[in-house]
Amino acid sequence: KRTQSSDRLKDSKLEPLLMIEDVATLCSVHNKTITLWVKQGKIPAIRCGRSVRFIWKDVLEALKKKHTIKP
Q: Is this structure's pTM higher than 0.90?
């Protein structure tokens, strides 16, 4: 059964979860700016306990809608 589920994961289109540092680097801003954007609701975040993770596609879409960055 494990082989089947691992095969499904390989075939699925799961996107990696990014950390604050990753998103800050991709946006060319400071880590604190990303934290502020999350608090302001500018970008979506996934909370895992005290950790915060991001899906880049969702972040990019939100920023384009808010005109924070230009596509």
A: no
